[in-house]
Amino acid sequence: MTNTALVQIKVDSETKTDVTSIYESLGLDLPTAVRIFFKKSIAVGGLPFELRNDSRSERWNIYKDARDSIKKNNVPEMSLDEINAEISAARSGL
């Protein structure tokens, strides 16, 4: 990443712990997951999922809903090579 900018956000400790655990289970660190989220937002021209006022138990359907929305809008998913490049870039910056 030649031209980078620092992005800082504040979240409560429990949220950070929970989301870090989720991303690590997918083989991602937090900065890489955020970069993937940003790139997918650019690709779809908005949030890469539909916002709803669902109950907590229904919230876990967000992954299915996001994939359905991506397919419906013919948005290409990131390839494994692109994901690995993101991970490599994040690790080389540590």
Describe the structure using short key phrases.
94 residues, mainly alpha, 4 helices
Give the end-to-end Cα distance, rounded to a whole number of Å: 13 Å
Largest sheet: none
Residue windows where pLDDT falls under 50 for at least 5 positions: none
Helical amount among residues, as a percent range?
Answer: 55-70%
The total count of helices amounts to 4
How do the helices and strands follow one another from N- to C-terminus? HHHH
Strand content: under 5%
Form type: globular
The rounded Rg comes to: 14 Å
What structural class is derived from the secondary structure elements?
mainly alpha
Q: Mean pLDDT across all residues, rounded? A: 82
Number of strands: 0
